[in-house]
Design brief:
The complex is a heterodimer of chains A (311) and B (277). With 311 residues, chain A is of the alpha/beta class. Chain A is built from 13 helices and 14 strands. In chain A, helix 8 (142-154) links the parallel strand 6 and strand 7. Chain A is globular, with a radius of gyration of 19 Å. By secondary structure, chain B is of the alpha/beta class. Chain B has a single domain (3-276), classed as Rossmann fold (3-Layer(aba) Sandwich). Chain B is built from ten helices and seven strands. The longest helix of chain B is centred in the N-terminal third of the chain and has 25 residues, at 3-27. The chains are: A alpha/beta (311), B alpha/beta (277). Chain A binds chain B through residues 26, 47-48, 50, 52-53, 55, 57-58, 60-71, 88-89, 92-93, 96-97, and chain B through 64, 66, 107, 113-118, 120-122, 124-133, 135-136, 154-155, 158-159, 161-162, 165-166.
Chain lengths: 311, 277
């Protein structure tokens, strides 16, 4: 198995690196700086780090005020509270003003585990991607998180970057991160498995199973949900009979929905969505939850085989 | 205080009131009550208290103003226009498609720093500005005008707590305490008293003033500048719809524009008032 890393460790370290180069960066957290790793920045640059306490709405609107004065602001907390809790502040004071606020949210998805439903953000991608100006990125591993954070820093305007709680394996064969451009990890035929975040790893595991059965699907990492890579998705749609789209998110409104929107306007084809099927999460180990909610490689292979049978 | 200056500011406030009535009557919708109640507050800020340059709205040394009660933008737009941020003709495009003057504040208007309209977020925005200016070692100040109904929003108190915690003494909040919100009298809909105690217990320096008395307002702003180590809030006691007899204390005019006939009467009253300044 590939080496495991916390994506949030890489986020914290990257923030410190950026902070050393640019005195204009300001970081905010809402009492979760140890978990999100913004504390690393806080230790090195205490004057540019503000712990806002358990008050996410205030944090987001304060970020907006800082950005209005020319600061590049990173604001972090858990995905649940970085999205739904402060949605109006994000829409009306960050995105509407197109301010330079980078929301980097940790603990996204079902693999939060034992904390249960109240802490498992399964709708955040959906909330964020409907907001104009907002860019939404779900990196597949720790290294890609680092690149995404740097890209967000260099790209003006608001971002939502989602990382998980658990350690995740490094993905082999990644391409350099380019905002809005997905890439193919495995050249295949007949089918494409499209994923983001940790589910890219699950897709690669599914690929191993399928290969043994003589099936060789494309495996694609779409790390940027918005702006979505319409070109890559359309090109793939011309080449295959169907897509299986995988995400640690509700099947409503996330990557699966986004891909479906693209192909249904260009070249409709069969799409199977792997994700949480319109339900809340619950407590359990990440492994147990992935199995319970059908996010395992076996679920992906099954969906692939169904498409081939129906095609 | 210089009597000529006071007279000048009183006249400005009255001009702002006339513009509010004219622009809202033409727009056919909008919020006269809470715009008229803050005319003196905005006048004092733009024509005496604040350091700003209408010819260079992005001058880094400027003081910042944020209208947290965004629906009172007709008062702000009038002040910006009179100060020279844009030509008066734009006032009469308020709320029209493509106008630089949106129904609620928006950055397409010269002089507007941050959009507002969704209540309760402005004090946080102002806190962010205060922190940024302090980090940049600028002596610019930040003024944030809030509504009295607006402070029923929880976000305001998050911001109040944080502003005291971070000791932003370059921040001055103003509450336009006109005692009405859309659905009726504040004390009946959702009581916000004891207001002074609330702000004090959150760690703010509190000054009370008659929000229509130029001298008292200028004194309050002067006092705020002197206070170190904590933010200051000015509780400005005002009259909703101030200056137009049939709008004063009338909740209906929170969110209803005057008709043509009402405009005529209102302007006549304000003209008469101006004669006494």
């Amino acid at each position: 198995m590939a080496e495991l890393f916390y994506a949030r460790d890489f986020y914290g370290k990257t923030l410190v690196e950026l902070g050393r180069k640019d005195p204009n960066i300001v970081v905010l957290d809402a009492d979760l700086s140890g978990s999100t790793r913004t504390a690393l920045f806080g230790r090195e640059f205490p004057e540019r780090f503000f712990n806002m306490g358990v008050a996410e709405q205030n944090m987001m609107a304060t970020a907006s005020g800082l950005a209005s004065c020319g600061k590049v602001v990173f604001a972090s907390t858990f995905s649940m509270f970085a999205s739904a809790r402060a949605l109006d502040q994000i829409r009306n004071t960050i995105s509407y003003n197109n301010f330079n606020v980078k929301i980097v949210a940790s603990h996204g998805g079902i693999t939060v585990g034992e904390d249960g439903s109240s802490h498992q953000a399964l709708e955040d991608i959906s909330f964020m991607r409907v907001i104009p100006n907002m860019k939404v990125v779900v990196p597949c591993d720790a290294e890609e998180t680092r690149e995404a954070v740097i890209s967000a820093y260099k790209t003006p305007g608001p971002f939502y970057i989602r990382v998980g709680r658990a350690k995740v394996p490094q993905i082999e064969g990644k391409k350099p991160f380019v905002l809005g451009q997905g890439y193919i990890l495995n050249e295949g035929e007949d089918l494409a498995i499209i994923s983001c975040g940790f589910m890219v790893y699950q897709a690669l595991r599914a690929l191993e199973i399928l290969k043994k059965q003589g099936v060789n699907p494309y495996v694609v990492n779409i790390h940027t949900i918005k702006p979505i890579d319409e070109k890559l998705i359309s090109e793939l749609a011309e080449k295959v009979k169907g897509f299986v789209v995988c995400e640690e998110h509700s099947i409503i409104g996330g990557l699966g929905s986004t891909v479906a929107e693209v192909v249904s306007e260009r070249k409709p084809l069969l799409i199977k969505r792997i994700g949480i099927r319109d339900s809340f999460g619950q407590s359990g180990t990440p492994g147990e939850l992935l199995k319970f909610y059908g996010l395992e490689p076996e679920n992906i292979t099954q969906a692939c085989l169904e498409i081939l049978r129906n095609a | 205080m210089n009597p000529a200056k006071i007279k000048f500011l009183k006249k400005k406030a009255n001009q702002i009131r006339k513009l509010i009535i004219k622009m809202l009557s033409r727009a056919g919708s909008g919020h006269p009550g809470g715009s008229l109640s803050c005319a003196e507050i905005i006048t004092c800020l733009y024509f005496e208290v604040m350091r700003h340059n209408p010819k260079d709205p992005n001058w880094p040394e400027r003081d910042r103003f944020h209208l947290s009660k965004g629906h009172a933008c007709p008062a702000w737009y009038s002040a910006l226009s009179l100060a020279g941020y844009f030509e008066e003709k734009h006032l009469f495009t308020l709320r029209r498609l493509g106008s630089i003057l949106q129904g609620h504040p928006d950055r397409r208007t010269p002089g507007v720093e941050v959009a507002s309209g969704s209540l309760g977020q402005g004090l946080s925005v102002a806190l962010g500005m205060s922190l940024a200016l302090r980090l940049d070692k600028r002596d610019s100040r930040v003024y944030c005008l809030m509504g009295d109904g607006e402070i029923q929003e929880g976000n305001i108190w998050e911001a109040a707590m944080a502003s005291a915690h971070f000791k932003v003494d370059n921040l001055c909040g103003i509450v336009d305490y006109n005692r009405f919100q859309i659905d009726g009298r504040i004390e009946k809909i959702m009581n916000i008293e004891p207001l002074v105690n609330k702000w004090e217990s959150f760690g703010w320096h509190v000054v009370q003033a008659d929000g229509h008395n130029i001298e008292e307002l200028l004194e309050a702003f002067g006092e705020a500048k002197q206070i170190k180590g904590k933010p200051t809030v000015i509780i400005a006691h005002t009259v909703k719809g101030k200056g137009v007899s049939f709008m004063e204390h009338v909740v209906d005019f929170h969110g209803r524009a005057p008709t043509k006939e009402e405009e005529k009467i209102a302007l006549k009253e304000l003209e008469d008032l101006e004669g006494f300044i």
